[in-house]
Design goal:
This protein has about 260 residues and is an alpha+beta fold. Helices cover about 25% and strands about 30% of the residues. The protein has five helices and 14 strands. Strands 1-14-11-6-7-8-9 form a seven-stranded antiparallel beta sheet. It has a five-stranded antiparallel beta sheet with strand order 2-3-4-5-10, covered by helices on one side. It has a two-stranded antiparallel sheet with strand order 12-13. A hairpin with a 2-residue loop joins β4 and β5. The relative contact order is 0.20.
Length: about 260
């Protein structure tokens, strides 16, 4: 197995607020983690890193045995302890999504807190999961640290977590919804040659030169169409896409991050 990741600043940002981690550790566990900080909150570039590192730490200490809800609470609790050690930082710096995928003994687990995209390439096709909050305000794990913020989020009108699932083998498209604060979770076999990637919602922000939006589905291969899986395979793929964007005057307003595992 191999794993790699990269992140890329959007044109509307002064600092990249996304972060990603990917590794195959010494025990043979592979993980891919993406965290996307909220632009409306302060120091979320720091917070997204803390969230991703906290998820990594949780997995290393056996967090993969937890339920999705327990895993999320473990991650945010660990992140809270870190932030409270840093003077002048608010816990709102942890306003960030968390997409985490890992493979252990041929089994894939994915927990997605907030919005973003999951890609699972298999021998039979490419399965896609796209998560969108109708309020455009993701349900951050950090809200669990403040009951008042949780209540305020719950009071948002017409706020739904929309899930679009596209099955590569059959072409079937499944649309469903989840209540906010309910993580999207997936478990499935992971076979040799499978590719699993998590991508932040910045994939929705790409525009052609005339500002026409580029559908996220059309961009999946730009981020996961790997030529080989040696070394920094994600960085190479995204670097090639960056060159294409410059050549064709394609822009993206939001930061974007991607982390991937090849089994």
């Amino acid at each position: 197995m191999n794993a790699d990741r990269t992140f890329w600043i959007g044109k509307d940002h002064n600092i990249c607020e996304d972060f990603a981690l990917a590794e195959v550790d010494s025990t043979g566990v592979a993980y891919a983690i993406v965290s996307d900080g909220c632009s409306a909150s302060k120091e979320v570039d720091f917070g997204s890193r803390v969230m991703a590192m906290s998820a990594k730490q949780s997995l290393r200490l056996g967090g993969y045995k937890l339920t999705p809800e327990q895993f999320g609470l473990d991650v945010i609790s660990n992140a809270e302890r870190v932030v409270r050690q840093v003077p002048y930082l608010s816990l709102q710096c942890l306003d960030a999504t968390l997409l985490a995928a890992w493979v252990i003994d041929g089994n894939l687990t994915v927990n997605m807190f907030g919005d973003g995209v999951l890609v699972h390439k298999t021998k039979t096709g490419v399965n896609l999961v796209h998560i969108h909050l109708t309020s455009n305000a993701p349900d951050y794990l950090s809200y669990h640290l403040d009951p008042l913020r949780t209540q305020a989020y719950d009071n948002l009108e017409d706020n739904k977590k929309e899930i679009t699932i596209k099955m590569g083998a059959t072409g079937e498209v499944i649309k469903t919804t989840l209540k906010p604060f309910t993580p999207y979770t997936l478990t499935a076999p992971a076979y040799e040659g499978d590719v699993i990637a998590v991508i932040s919602d910045g994939i929705n922000s790409f525009r052609k030169p005339d500002y026409t939006p580029i559908p996220w589905e059309e961009l999946v291969d730009e981020f996961t169409g790997f030529k080989n899986f040696e070394g920094e395979f994600v960085l190479r793929r995204v670097s090639a896409f960056k060159r294409k964007c410059l050549k064709e005057s394609i822009t993206h307003s939001d930061d974007i991050s991607v982390a991937a595992i090849v089994v």
